[in-house]
Amino acid sequence: MQEFLLFAGVGFLAQIIDGALGMAYGVVCSTVLLSFGVPPAHASASVHAAELFTTAASGSAHLYHRNIDWRLFVRLAPFGILGGCLGAYVLTSFEGDAIKPFVTTYLALVGVWLLFRSFRKIPTNPVPTGIVAPLGAAGGFLDAAGGGGWGPIVTTGLLGAGGAPRYVIGTVNASEFLITLSVSVTFLLALLTGHWEAGGSYMEHATAVAGLIVGGILAAPFAGWVIKSVPERVLLRAIGCLIVLLATWQTLQLLELV
User: Fold this and answer.
1) Cα–Cα distance between 171 and 28 in angstroms, integer?
2) What is the CB neighbour count within 10 angstroms for residue 42?
3) Which of 46, 212, 217, 238 is most buried (CB neighbours < 10 A)?
4) How would you class 200 by CB atoms within 10 Å of its CB: exposed for 0-12, middle for 13-18, buried for 19 or more?
5) How far apart are the first and last CA of the chain?
6) pLDDT tens digits along 133-164
């Protein structure tokens, strides 16, 4: 019960952040699981199992509050699904830690750019069509391979290109359900076909997964209201600070200082 309540608390806080800022649920939950000694592939599979429920609830909240740009959704989701399936296959084949330094550098640069943008009057522009597919594919791949990354990669990329925070975050959260579903199915197929040889002990972490699910579902309904109510400048600054802190934390981990 203590483990369940701990992960329920983690899931609740992570989902509040993710629903309001468009990122961090997977990264926060994966980091906690890894700190408890859960193997990377098991951590990613556990987070995506929980996200099947939390992204459905969060996406429904954003749909209710009309935070979704459906034209962007249709262009983004298919490439996210392809990238997610590939990332899950790669992770069940070997460790995906080699790409973490590149992700950390990317996050730090985009975080600083968003902070800079929040202090200037920069008009919101339509998101360029050409960047949507690469961002979706990269975000899906890193989300599956790293246990989190869909929000940090896609949300920051779209915001950096001038997208309106409310609709970018709502659309990214809504499309995340389809990416999560495809990644979870890939993990399941890898387990059933024997490709994921170390997956047999996955159910040992069922209590943690249940806690993440319950905490995330309880928090999800608040997300749509928060993003609809908070001013754009505040959102951009909060997202920028979160990304910089996240990049700093990951750098310290890579240097084995924490």
Assistant:
1) 21
2) 24
3) 212
4) exposed
5) 28
6) 999 999 999 888 876 778 878 988 898 888 88
> DSSP letters along 93-128, please?
TS--GGGHHHHHHHHHHHHHHHHHHHTS-----PPP
The tokens describing 11, both together, are 């899931």
Structure confidence by residue, pLDDT tens digits, 91-141: 888 655 666 677 667 667 777 877 776 776 655 667 788 899 999 999 999
Segments in 92-231 forming alpha helices (H): 100-118, 129-146, 150, 156-160, 165-192, 206-219, 221-229
Q: What is this structure's pTM? A: 0.75
Q: How far apart are CA 26 and CA 173, in angstroms?
A: 12
Euclidean distance between CA atoms 69 and 78, whole angstroms: 15
Cα–Cα distance for residue pair 49/210, rounded to 1 Å: 9
Three-state DSSP at 149 gives: coil
